Amino acid sequence: MTTLYGYFRSSAAYRVRIALNLKGLAYEPALINLVKGEQRSDDYRARNPQGLVPLLETDDGIRLTQSLAICEYLEERYPTPALLPHTPEERARVRALAQLVASEIHPLNNLKVLKYLVHELKVGDEAKTAWYRHWITEGFDALEAMLTLEAGSGEFCHGDAPTLADLCLVPQVYNAERFECDLSAYPRIQRITANCRALPAFQQAAPEAQPDAP
Amino acid sequence: MTTLYGYFRSSAAYRVRIALNLKGLAYEPALINLVKGEQRSDDYRARNPQGLVPLLETDDGIRLTQSLAICEYLEERYPTPALLPHTPEERARVRALAQLVASEIHPLNNLKVLKYLVHELKVGDEAKTAWYRHWITEGFDALEAMLTLEAGSGEFCHGDAPTLADLCLVPQVYNAERFECDLSAYPRIQRITANCRALPAFQQAAPEAQPDAP
């Protein structure tokens, strides 16, 4: 059985859960408590030297890391339903939307970075929240503009079915809501998120539906 | 003619320059001075609402953003020489190495983040350098472990020819050297970087070889 090492609130694990669900692939969850630092244990690092979740271990013992690399692997091995459109140009658009979340917003706001701000840079609560919201705002401004201006947009980030872009967007919106970011300037993002959340694959991947959720 | 909007020191533009060179694709450089804030001009934002480089405009007027999405596009449209190996498992490994740089290290250390640290969080020079080195160390520790322990490694990150992973690694090493990070603990990273730098495609993509280099 495929095993997914993850944590209920990890955005990156959340993306992979959605991908697995959309493709109808069963998996065993292995829970790594990031707040307790279990990702840094020798045992876990022996599986993934990065000390990060997610890690996907396949039936045949192959270990895959980095959420977008895992999703691309799933797409290649289990092409239906597709998480990427057909033409290279459309695929590039979807990957750009996904990377905008995965490389411009999420890395700045994940747990290890917020901890560094507090513990090493002695940043107060207010400045930490301002930091968080700053990168959400900058990223979502760009994303909303792309979703509004570009031809490919539809009921989802690209067209009328979920793609790699949506499975990055929804976990990022979840995080933004947790930090009480004002999303009223992003009607497209909100509508697409609502469309995603109407699907069981997204519902079952949500943090609150995981076995390690409080 | 294909146009690449970039900046000599942008890691993300540097990646795309290497990919274009490896594939033997000619392009016109369009120079966007990030220090002067030209990426935020109305004119540039009309082309790329993200206000980021790189942006690749193809012959047929298609605009592509986000370096890894651009490289995947180039790989699909111009498959030879390949920047990704053949099997889904190997491709996943290369993409994971690339994402480790592109999502875990680079986003924390790019210009806009360093500016935020200095201007908004009033972080001093020493703490800024410590921040920079912290994320390099954490990321390179993981990368070195993967390159040492995993079967796929060779004279390059994966096997004996450059892949997507190498074109993320080399710009990151360039940045680490600029910030005088101690790389002595990373012999694999150093050897692979040296192998890359021996190739004209990497040499011609280097920041110092660009028309906007001082």
From TrEMBL, chains A, B:
GO molecular function, one term: glutathione transferase activity
Entry annotated with the keyword NAD: no
Source superkingdom: Bacteria
SUPFAM superfamilies: GST C-terminal domain-like, Thioredoxin-like
Keywords in alphabetical order: Isomerase
Membrane-spanning segments: none
Transmembrane helix in keyword set: no
PROSITE patterns associated with the record: GST_CTER (PS50405), GST_NTER (PS50404)
GO CC entries: cytoplasm
Residue ranges of domain GST N-terminal in the record: 1-82
An example Gene Ontology biological process: L-phenylalanine catabolic process
Pfam families given in the database record: GST_N_3 (PF13417)
Domain GST C-terminal: 87-214
Family named by the database record: Belongs to the GST superfamily. Zeta family.
The protein's name in its UniProt record: Maleylacetoacetate isomerase
Organism: Halomonas cerina
